[in-house]
Amino acid sequence: MTDAAAHDLTDPATDPFAVAEAAAAVIRERTGADRHDIALVLGSGWGQAGDLVGETLASIENTDVPGFAKAAVEGHSGTMRSVAVGDTGRRALVYGTRTHFYEGRGVRSVVHGVRTAAAAGCSSLVITNGCGGLRPEWAPGTPVLISDHINLTAHSPIEGAHFVDLTDLYSPRLRALAQEVDPTLDEGVYVQFRGPHYETPAEVRMAKVLGGDLVGMSTSLEAIAARQAGLEVLGISLVTNAAAGISPDPLSHEEVLAAGRAAADRCGRLLADVVRLA
């Protein structure tokens, strides 16, 4: 098998965990760090927040690491960074983008960053996203902790008969820690749709009936893969807009980016404090 074939996550013969190990080896070589302690996935609206976590000690283009691709969405960075977590001596692996399910590269590609983080030594993962809010009191720019999710993609990253308990998938310990950092943080249930089209008002009403508070196009598949890999998971959504039908205004990606810029300082400080304490 050629190197290219070995890194093709769409090939059924490829072992996705072996590709993650190969990616982690490149990260160790390029960063000079034997291990990283915590990983962050920066979703839409969260790009600037990573700058406040700590000093960037090394940067790597995604395309230089096995199994990773360049950023496909405006507002995401196609670079991963090795960041010093304050003066703790710990390292954070910060992903400036993710592969979304709607890109059509398969679930393995969606969760490859998570599996690579585990292979690089991380014990915890912070997943962020930009999303639509179903509660009128959550204005654009409001960060919300994810307490649970509803996966409407009809897919799972787990292959074969591996039965993974998701009862407390979104760590109660890390959520409590985040609320110590910012007592105003609320919690909600995140609903992942496939995308890339935004949800219809009827679909948003359905999500609300099912128990959802937030709607978006990422996160749940990554969180499941993280649990399978033994990572402790903290999920944080940034409400970038009211979901379809909640507000009379049309939805746009520009609105998502603008809300992220407006909330960058608050979200960055929240992430920085949580990561130092996690």
TrEMBL record:
GO BP of this protein: nucleoside metabolic process
Pathway named in the protein's UniProt entry: Purine metabolism; purine nucleoside salvage
Residues noted as binding phosphate in the record, renumbered to the chain: 44, 76, 98-100, 130, 218
Gene Ontology CC: cytoplasm
Superkingdom of origin: Bacteria
Binding-site residues, a purine D-ribonucleoside: 199, 241
Enzyme class: transferase
Enzyme Commission identifier(s): 2.4.2.1
Domain (Nucleoside phosphorylase) ranges: 37-276
Key words, A-Z: Glycosyltransferase, Transferase
Enzymatic reactions: a purine 2'-deoxy-D-ribonucleoside + phosphate = a purine nucleobase + 2-deoxy-alpha-D-ribose 1-phosphate
Quaternary data: Homotrimer.
Family designation: Belongs to the PNP/MTAP phosphorylase family.
Reported function: The purine nucleoside phosphorylases catalyze the phosphorolytic breakdown of the N-glycosidic bond in the beta-(deoxy)ribonucleoside molecules, with the formation of the corresponding free purine bases and pentose-1-phosphate. Cleaves guanosine, inosine, 2'-deoxyguanosine and 2'-deoxyinosine.
Name under which the protein is recorded: Purine nucleoside phosphorylase
Lineage of the species this protein comes from: Bacteria, Bacillati, Actinomycetota, Actinomycetes, Micrococcales
